[in-house]
Design brief:
The chain has eight helices and eleven strands. The chain is α+β, with helices and mostly antiparallel strands. The chain is elongated, with a radius of gyration of 29 Å. The protein starts with 7 loop residues before the first strand and ends with a strand. About 10% of the residues have low confidence.
């Protein structure tokens, strides 16, 4: 007899597939996966090697969180076509889950970076840092935009990108360098939203300069994409009273002038310690402004 035609006990068959034999008993009881035969002498369930691919398919679908009822429907009408359709659906679900986990990881890395910065930074120091190009979502604001209006616009915008919670993205404000050079230190024109799964791609038109890990996200077309350019940036920090931000910007401009640097584009402001403070006077803003090469 071919070795693959030999009967296996429920214990042997369960061990071969890395599961508990009670799982096989349950699958039999609910009519999902019966044994090849029942030993007439002792009533024990017996299985054959040829049943392994079917069981492995069931176990794979269970690992993908397919319900028992869905698996039953598939098993009663299984075919190459039905398995292909089912797997396509579950691959899409898995891709979305992977994308979410990648976004969570990127957010955690950002928090970790901010905490490392907090522990090592000198608030008075202005430094130069290198940054990769980054794609941001922006919301236009003006001097008369209230805080409540800004919150509503940001909330509406993030919903378009299927973000589950506010912590799935980072937020900040933008003021043009032209405004800074003209002493208009309160002329903020945009709020930016840094979404982890948007990545700027050099060498592509602006409308195409973002990459989604999966096309199944069905993200909307959007005119509010802004590319934060890659290259050298001046980085500085400000703690406490926002009314003193203009003074900090003047220090930045003076430093840039003394070093022969030319600033361009926008200044990007982002809070880096909201998660570890209780008082606004302890709030620290990170300021980053691109340098012309």
């Amino acid at each position: 007899m071919n070795q693959k035609d030999k009967m296996l006990t429920i214990g042997q068959f369960a061990a071969m597939h890395g599961i508990n034999k009670k799982t096989l008993m349950w699958y039999d009881e609910i009519g999902l996966f019966p044994p090849a035969c029942i030993n007439p002498e002792n009533g024990y369930r017996c299985y054959t090697y040829h049943q392994s691919p079917i069981l492995e398919t069931i176990l794979l679908l269970r690992e993908l969180d397919v319900s028992i009822d869905e698996i039953k429907d598939f098993m009663s009408n299984r075919s190459a076509g039905s398995l292909k359709s089912l797997l396509e659906e579950k691959i899409g679900d898995l891709e979305r889950r992977i994308t979410h986990l990648q976004a969570v990881k990127k957010t955690l890395c950002k928090y970790h970076q901010n905490m490392s910065t907090l522990l090592t930074m000198d608030l008075s120091k202005i430094t130069i840092t290198e940054k990769e190009a980054q794609c941001l979502i922006t919301v236009d604001i003006h001097k008369d935009t209230s805080f409540e209006e800004a919150v509503e616009m940001v909330t509406a915008e993030t919903k378009k990108y299927q973000l589950g919670r506010l912590h799935d993205a980072n937020y900040g404000s933008m003021i043009s360098v032209d405004s800074l050079y003209n002493d208009n230190f309160d002329n903020y024109t945009k709020i930016f939203i840094e979404i982890p799964f948007l990545t700027a791609q050099p060498g592509f038109p602006l409308a195409e300069q973002y990459k989604f890990p999966t096309a199944r996200l069905h993200l909307p077309a959007h005119n509010g994409l802004h590319i934060m350019p890659g290259g050298r940036y001046l980085r500085a920090f400000h703690k406490g009273d926002w009314g003193k931000l203009p003074q900090r910007y003047q220090e930045i401009l003076d430093y840039a002038g003394s070093q022969g640097f030319t600033l361009y584009g926008f200044s990007y402001e982002m809070g880096i310690n909201e998660t570890v403070i209780d008082r606004m006077e302890d709030y620290i803003v990170q300021i980053e402004i691109p340098l012309q090469n």
